[in-house]
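Subject: Sanity check before I submit

Could someone independently write out the structure tokens for this chain? I want to compare against mine line by line before I put it in a report. The sequence has 275 residues.
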Amino acid sequence: MSSYIRPIDLIDALAALAESDLTVLAGATDYYPAQVGRVANHDILDLSGVEALTGIERHDEHWRIGAMATWRDLVDADLPPCFDGLKQAALQVGGPQIQNTATIAGNLCNASPAADGVPPLLCLDAEVEIQDRAGSRVLPLTEFIQGNRRTALQPDQLVTAILVPTALEQGCTGFMKLGARSSLVISIVMVSGLLRWDDQGRVHRANLSVGACSEVAQRLPALEAELVGRTDLHDVVRPEHFSHLSPLEDHRGTASYRLDAAATMIQRMLEDLSS
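---
Independent answer below. Compare away.
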């Protein structure tokens, strides 16, 4: 018979995970649809009772988003401008029922190439806090997600928080998503961006990312470097800025379509953020 464990203390959750092969549930919005037509025989570790994993708080050097914070928690939180793009992504994660239940950390652990939260968090230089019984460590998001449905998380470890540096608080951010319809849709292409300006109106920092165009969402380092020092961001995007991407070919779109859409969307985003 399958077991179901719902601890209220993080220490107990980590102990259970270290001693048994458990399927970890946060919001469970991906887990239950995947069980349709199957016999549910997993031993479950339900984290919904662990209060230490909730909340969104500001610390001296970073904002801490608890692993059990939902997309609705993020939307409702009083956060600085740099989170605007992530909030825009939050409002496109399924419908309201999903947003009320699905967690931001769960979106990262699921590690889908089309995960809506990854591009804006990449632009926020997000880090992932991981913990096991021996202690905790922090990994850049770029190292945490290692491929399609693959992360750096070990079987006895939990994600406990997502960290965003306070140094980016005044960044201007955005998010755009292309799908077959306006909502409740898996992304064909996603783009996100963060811009910061100096006192002369020149770009001081540019963080740009593209999702659903590679196995893992990617930053655009060549374009980011080219934007620094510029005041006019019209007609700056070129195909070579996306040459390191490797888009999928599937029923949602061809590789060439995805690349063309990504370039168009990044250009539109730059113009929106600079207006």
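---
OP: Matches mine. For the report I'm noting this point. The chain has two domains: 52-167, 169-274.
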